[in-house]
């Protein structure tokens, strides 16, 4: 056969590569399924698969038939001929256990199919068909739950005999009532979601809504209920066989074997061990698989860290405490700071791995100062590390993330090297937090007054009456006129702006000296935003409190911040006085942010189209070794491929991380309102001679 032409061979290879890559991606995705990320689930799945396979192939490999008797080895323990011993009739226990496995598992699965399937269908029907249908189905299921299940099963056995599949199906029907009650509440909650209302507006039929929008949301609950009923079905089936209502003799069953072993518990106690151990392992395997599948695939990390996470964080804290104090990369010395001043020095935050500091870095060498009575703004796109930096100030990093280096100096203490227990004396009393969503700080189960007074009593040690007066004073201080009425309301009974004011009052309960505000005005309308900013400005002026403001809005920075730190890809790229940076930005990223802000342009010089920044913030694992903004920068050159330090700015007291900062300032360059390909590297030229690709064409 003649060889294929070169171009044809290349085409064949190119066509095969996508298929090969797709296959590898599918294998990788399958291996990362939540079922295979849990060791218990993997062990349980392996046990059930081995049990079913061994049972279905039993005639091919079992050393003895289930009815074969060896009268020379009656009630014997494990031997070379009988690995698990024999029963009172000399029958091989190993052969009988595996021969009965398939039937036991199959009939238990029948209970799951009937019980979970019927209960889910009834719950979805009741949730979507209206109150009248729900009332009828609920009354029927209540009657089913009130019936004595054992009596009904015995009656069925008396009518149809020991027909195990029929008996287990009837058991599934009885258990479906309990499944219905569990799933109904969740199904009704899903039916009230906005995306379901949108589907109804689009004309989607109720059946399709139930199948496409409601059923996927019930998957975790259904899986957990299925695992529970599967285990209960096996135990009930074994219990029926134990009292003599199992498969007819001589057909083996696990319950019948346990019943036979119970009669020889004194003279042959080993007989109880093999069958009991197999039954227990099978039940545990089903529960382990259910627990793994029942976990939400996108569940967030728990608020309370696990024991392993706490140990990992303790190691990181110990390593930071033992590290020597060095000067920062910008030349500022480490060590103690003035009282009421926050100094962050070379702060790094990373994902925990096998050892402290070996995971992916999320924040790298961040340094800034917040003087007493001043406001610092942390600005940047989403994914730049602003929130991680802010949360590290209070030791509230999520589980699996910890400070891996640097210092957080506050009142003579390095908070980065402080344990969680010691941080309890700092949080609320010295440093407080205002979250982006006020409802995250307010418990819907308690009134505003209860939450405020409880916090004040805990942080200040006041009595109940005195704490209530202080709560009224705090609400009035944050601009709430009818404070007495608000104290009696629940969080869901007040508006978003009012809830944010309450959250600020809650943060002020311990008289903190530093307030960390994580985008406190993002979810509010423009009028309420102005009121909240005016409130924060007045608090800073009246109390001398410092504020670290995390925000996307440069208007907020211009309104309230004294200093600003611009962050990109986990680094501070520019830092200095707010007026200096907003009027004369020296880093291309700051220049681009201002060019993309409509409020930063005057009406007479408003461009036809606002500037944009092509691409997106790279993931931490993809950070380049050089300038992290180079791939999106219109002014990037070969010098940007090397690491760029944070150096003093040529004008003023600011810091900037750009090798072309001075050249850009001298030439007076602007960020162009055109999309520049990331692969194109532009030379820095005067503004008058800089041409776009469109002009050159």
Rg on CA atoms, Å: 34 Å
DSSP, total strands: 12
Helix content: 40-55%
| Approximate shape | elongated
Q: What oligomeric state do these chains adopt?
A: single chain
Mean pLDDT: 84
Distance linking N and C termini: 52 Å
Percentage of residues in DSSP E strands: 5-15%
- Low-confidence stretches are 1-16, 298-302, 328-333, 676-697
Strand order of the largest sheet: 6-7-8-3-9-10-12-11
Main beta-sheet strand count, sense and barrel state:
8 strands, mixed
Individual helix count: 25
Structural class: alpha/beta
Your description of this structure?
With 697 residues, the chain is an alpha/beta fold. The protein is built from 25 helices and twelve strands. It has an eight-stranded mixed beta sheet, sandwiched between helices. A four-stranded antiparallel beta sheet has the order 2-1-4-5. A hairpin with a 2-residue loop joins strand 9 and strand 10. The longest helix is centred in the first third of the chain and has 37 residues. The chain is elongated. The relative contact order is 0.06. The N terminus and C terminus are likely disordered.
Task: Give the topology, please.
Layout: H1 6-31, H2 39-56, H3 58-61, H4 93-129, H5 131-146, H6 149-160, H7 164-191, H8 194-201, H9 206-214, H10 219-242, H11 254-262, H12 272-294, H13 307-322, E1 342-351, E2 361-370, E3 375-379, H14 386-392, E4 401-410, E5 413-414, H15 420-423, E6 431-434, H16 448-460, H17 464-477, H18 483-487, H19 496-507, E7 514-518, H20 526-543, E8 546-551, H21 554-560, E9 563-568, E10 571-577, H22 578-583, H23 588-595, E11 647-648, E12 655-656, H24 661-667, H25 693-696
């Amino acid at each position: 056969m003649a060889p294929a032409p070169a171009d044809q061979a290349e085409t064949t290879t190119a066509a095969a590569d996508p298929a090969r890559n797709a296959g590898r991606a599918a294998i990788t995705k399958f291996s990362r399924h939540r079922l295979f990320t849990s060791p218990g689930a993997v062990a349980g799945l392996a046990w059930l698969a081995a049990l079913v396979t061994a049972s279905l192939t039993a005639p091919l490999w079992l050393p003895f038939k289930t009815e074969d008797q060896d009268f020379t080895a009656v009630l014997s323990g494990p031997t070379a001929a009988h690995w698990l011993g024999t029963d009172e009739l000399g029958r091989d226990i190993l052969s009988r256990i595996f021969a009965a496995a398939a039937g036991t598992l199959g009939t238990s699965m029948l209970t799951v199919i009937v019980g979970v399937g019927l209960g889910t269908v009834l719950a979805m029907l009741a949730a979507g068909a209206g109150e009248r249908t729900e009332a009828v189905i609920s009354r029927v299921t209540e009657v089913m739950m009130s019936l004595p299940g054992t009596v009904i099963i015995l009656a069925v056995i008396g009518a149809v005999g020991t027909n195990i599949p029929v008996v287990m199906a009837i058991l599934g029907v009885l258990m479906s009532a309990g499944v219905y009650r569990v799933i109904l509440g969740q199904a009704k909650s899903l039916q009230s979601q906005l995306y379901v209302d949108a589907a109804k507006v689009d004309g989607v039929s109720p059946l399709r809504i139930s199948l496409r929008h409601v059923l996927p949301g019930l998957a975790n609950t259904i899986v957990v209920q299925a695992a529970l009923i599967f285990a209960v079905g096996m135990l009930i089936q074994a219990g029926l066989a134990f009292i003599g209502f199992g498969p007819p003799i001589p057909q083996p069953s696990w319950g019948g074997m346990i019943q036979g072993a119970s009669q020889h518990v004194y003279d042959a106690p080993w007989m109880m061990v093999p069958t009991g151990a197999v039954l227990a392992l099978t039940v545990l395997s089903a529960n382990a698989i259910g627990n793994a599948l029942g976990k939400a695939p996108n569940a967030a990390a728990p608020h309370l860290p696990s024991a392993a996470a706490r140990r990992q964080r303790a190691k990181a804290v110990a390593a930071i405490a033992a590290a020597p104090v060095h000067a920062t990369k910008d030349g500022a010395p480490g060590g103690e700071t003035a009282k009421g001043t926050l100094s962050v020095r070379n702060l790094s935050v990373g994902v925990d791995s096998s050892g402290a500091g070996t995971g992916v870095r999320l924040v790298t060498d961040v340094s800034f100062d917040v003087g007493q009575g001043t406001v610092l703004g942390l600005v940047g796109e989403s994914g730049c590390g602003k929130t991680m930096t802010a949360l590290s100030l209070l030791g509230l990093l999520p589980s699996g993330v910890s400070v891996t280096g640097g210092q957080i100096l506050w009142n003579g203490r390095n908070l980065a090297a402080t344990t969680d227990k010691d941080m309890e004396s700092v949080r609320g009393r010295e440093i407080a937090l205002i979250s982006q969503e006020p409802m995250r700080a307010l418990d819907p189960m308690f009134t505003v007054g209860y939450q405020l007074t409880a916090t004040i009593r805990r942080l200040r040690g006041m009595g109940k009456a005195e704490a209530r007066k202080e709560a009224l004073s705090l609400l009035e201080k944050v601009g709430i006129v009818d404070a007495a009425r608000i104290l009696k309301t629940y969080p869901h009974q007040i508006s978003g702006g009012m809830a944010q004011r309450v959250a600020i009052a809650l943060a002020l309960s311990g008289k903190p000296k530093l307030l960390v505000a994580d985008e406190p005005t993002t979810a509010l309308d423009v009028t309420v935003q102005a009121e909240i900013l005016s409130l924060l400005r007045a608090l800073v002026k009246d109390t001398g409190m410092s504020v670290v403001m995390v925000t996307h809005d440069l208007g907020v920075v211009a309104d309230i911040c004294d200093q600003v730190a611009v962050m990109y890809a986990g680094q501070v790229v520019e830092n200095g006085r707010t007026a200096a940076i907003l009027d004369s930005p020296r880093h291309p990223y700051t220049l681009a942010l201002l060019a993309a802000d409509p409020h930063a342009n005057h009406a007479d010089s408003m461009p036809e189209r606002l500037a944009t920044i092509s691409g997106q913030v790279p993931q931490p694992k993809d950070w380049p070794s050089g300038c992290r903004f180079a791939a999106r920068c219109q002014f990037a050159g070969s010098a940007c491929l090397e690491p760029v330090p944070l150096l003093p700015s040529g004008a003023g007291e600011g810091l900037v991380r750009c090798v072309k900062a001075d050249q850009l300032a001298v030439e007076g360059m602007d960020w162009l309102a055109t999309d520049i390909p990331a692969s194109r590297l532009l030379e820095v030229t005067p503004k008058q001679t800089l041409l776009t690709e469109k002009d050159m064409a």
